Amino acid sequence: MIPDEKIAEIRERANLVEIVGEYVSLKRAGTNFKGVCPFHADSDPSFNVNPSRQFFHCFGCSASGDIFSFVQRIEGIEFMEAARLLAGKYGIVLPERPMTSEAKTRQDREREEKARRLHVLETATVFFEESLWAPAGKVAREVLRQRGVSDVTAKAFRLGYAPDAWQGLLDHFHRHRISAREAEAVGLALPRKTGDGYYDRFRNRLVFTITDSQGHPIAFSARALPGEDTGAKYINSPETHEYSKGKVLFGLHQARVALSKQRHAILVEGNFDVVAMHEAGFQNVMAPLGTAFTEEQATVLRRRVDRVTVMFDGDRAGMAAAVRSFPILAKCGLAAYMSPLPSGQDPDSLLREKGAKVMEGILQRSSGLLDEIIRMTAAASDGSSQDISRRVTKLRPLINSVRDAMERDLYRQKVAAAFSVEPGIVFRYLRDERVSETPAARPSAMPVPGDSDERELIGLLLDLPELCDEAVKIGAVSQIRTPRLREMAEQLVYNSHHHSSGASALMAGAQTDVVADWLAKRGLETLYENAESGKEALYEIREMMEKRNLETQIVEIKKQIQLAHASGDDMMVLSLQRRRTEIEREMHGVGIAFDNSTVRH
Ligand SMILES: [Zn+2]
């Protein structure tokens, strides 16, 4: 846990305009800054940053929030990570959690060890890179040249070459005071089968650097060079402390800005496909690194995108991989599309033979992944009842993995049409096996809770924090009946005492939360500028709220009186009527108090 005051300090010191400016070019527009939204395909600048309140809002996609949510979203990380990243950037030292000195020592040691391993991996990356551009790397450079990979792209992906030697890397490590044992720990060296000593895992191979999402090298994927018929086409690092293969996507780091901008990822099979796609200008592309696409990889993507297009090789294996990826994508709530490649092609070969324009066309013609699977399954059927039944049954788990009930029905209908069978049959045999979940309603379609007075009060306190104390004193805040709005008002009061610009924190999560969304929109404008007229409005709002609350009480009492009548409880009726008179008198008093306390002409 990071203590609140540290979070507040980060908020104080960090500058949202500066941070956003690292990703988006911003121009001043009145009191706000405007730019093209990094979170949706935005043509005119709909992305607003309000510097004084330190929050952002996009009129195009409703993305909004504070500096933490911006960093979280664009980097695809959790709150804590975002806080640490910002703290690091602004030189704020975060305190360690109190722990026993033993645990502390252990944590320090683990941290040091991790830093050391990352250093070893980084040193290796630099070595592979230098080897690629050195004379001995000619054979690997030639492969890149044939594939049309430019030097710029090769450098952006930190491609390298592992020299044709048993101890090339180990000798380099030795010069950098890195032991063979350390090399082994990160998967770069293997113990000799006979005698002592170690040897390089990767030899005479083109090296793809695998990084974590922040760009630190954590593993390598090394490809055999032409004429080398020893061993597998690809050799990957083994699983280590830093690297577990089902969790990492090759190219994720290079794709991150494009992903957050387009909210769309293209999944290809091979490392070269990723590099070739980038080279051709498609930057939202990554590959699952020699494994089937996993749920962990889908989760990594879910934080960054809404839509995934699979573009697997145009062969049987590619189709099978696409089919396997569907339920994983669907379960994560990712919209799944497919761009089928001509048979025998992969993205890399297609780009080399046909160019980026044809690729663009293929991407534009992408269709729903399951629609495509249904179409292809039906096309492969021999039309016999047995075969149809077998194939339709195979589609069942895919359809059932879809979250949205209506979508599931639409797929069933498509199955019926594709196999030319009576829809009733398909519906009967492919019925839901799971409790249907209603899709989350779009926040914009939901009314903002609370009534207009309550919201007006919050807007007022946002514009004029100096009125917060007054609002508490005259009981305006305590008149708020809607819990979320009450909480929000209390937070604003708290902020006003702590000189915190934390209002933006309240707007975080605007995409999923109607109240935060409302506040984010409201926060873009300042409706009350003058404390005097603001105070007048405050009293007016307070009165309206008080009146309304008393009215609600009267309605309630009337109901109770009726109930008491019906049950013949005369004593109760009397006491309720007395209470009602009191409230009515109070209501009258509200008007009088209001008239006396404000200057109205
Ligand atoms: Zn947007």
Q: Care to give the gist of this entry?
A:
With 601 residues, the chain is α+β, with helices and mostly antiparallel strands. Helices cover 53% and strands 10% of the residues. Helix 11 (271-279) links the parallel strand 12 (264-267) and strand 13.
Distinct small molecules bound, one entry per kind: zinc ion
Alpha carbon gap, first and last residue: 54 Å
Mean residue pLDDT: 85
Assign a percent range to the helix content. 40-55%
Radius of gyration: 31 Å
CATH architecture of the largest domain: Orthogonal Bundle
Number of separate domains: 5
- Computed structural class: alpha+beta
Quote the beta fraction: 5-15%
Task: Please give the order of strands in the largest beta sheet.
Answer: 1-2-3-4-5
CATH third-level topology of the largest domain: DNAb Helicase, Chain A
Low-confidence stretches: 434-445, 592-601
Descriptive account of the structure:
- By secondary structure, the chain is α+β, with helices and mostly antiparallel strands.
- It has 5 domains: 4-89, Zinc finger, CHC2-typedomain (DNA Primase, Chain A), CATH 3.90.580.10; 102-243, DNA primase, catalytic core, N-terminal domain (DNA primase DNAg catalytic core, N-terminal domain); 252-371, Dna Topoisomerase Vi A Subunit, Chain: A, domain 2; 382-429, no CATH class; 448-597, Orthogonal Bundle (DNAb Helicase, Chain A), CATH 1.10.860.
- It contains 26 helices and 16 strands.
- Strands 1-2-3-4-5 form a 5-stranded antiparallel sheet, sandwiched between helices. It has a 5-stranded mixed sheet with strand order 13-12-14-15-16. Strands 6-9-10-11 form a 4-stranded antiparallel sheet, with helices on one face.
- Strand 1 and strand 2 (32-35) form a beta hairpin.
- Bound molecules: zinc ion.
